């Protein structure tokens, strides 16, 4: 049995209950979801679950999140977020999507999306998304060597040409710092986000 409720009049409450919260599972139609398309009123769908991220301007990736307001963010979320990021959006969960209400997607579209997800799953199984720790040890070490060399060139030489070369080397060092901070802060290196955050702060802010 279902009960109609919600501000759009199209939300459906199923009479089953969640195990932990003991609250009724609210179900929303696609027509209801696509009404919420502004940063101040933004709903999104992830794996047929509905999330209300209205006014979440503190999103780590910035306001780009609102470009998918009122839409299905399943694949774009997976593409741009590290494993474990799902835990951050649990607090925004408001209910489930009535899958049958997605009339704008035909069987061909569903097949395409499933094919993409199957392909990604195979690549994950092959280890294509795993970073090589030794590569980042090498990159961090070589970057510090560039910094040390640039400092030594200024400290032990009065030549203008050596100082110019040092400046170029230091510029290359900072450029590489940016890429290292990018990789660490996008959590491509560590499974635990706090380690990536600390390394990102070191390379991006302190160096």
Automatic annotation (TrEMBL):
SUPFAM superfamilies: Cytochrome b5-like heme/steroid binding domain (SSF55856). GO terms for biological process: lipid metabolic process. Residues 25-98 form the Cytochrome b5 heme-binding domain. InterPro entries: Cyt_B5-like_heme/steroid-bd (IPR001199), Cyt_B5-like_heme/steroid_sf (IPR036400), Fatty_acid_desaturase (IPR012171). GO terms for molecular function: oxidoreductase activity, acting on paired donors, with oxidation of a pair of donors resulting in the reduction of molecular oxygen to two molecules of water. It is found in: Membrane. Keywords: Lipid metabolism, Membrane, Oxidoreductase, Transmembrane, Transmembrane helix. The keyword Metal-binding does not apply. It is a multi-pass membrane protein. GO terms for cellular component: membrane. It holds the Pfam family Cyt-b5. Belongs to the fatty acid desaturase type 1 family. This is Cytochrome b5 heme-binding domain-containing protein. The lineage of its organism: Eukaryota, Sar, Stramenopiles, Ochrophyta, Bacillariophyta.
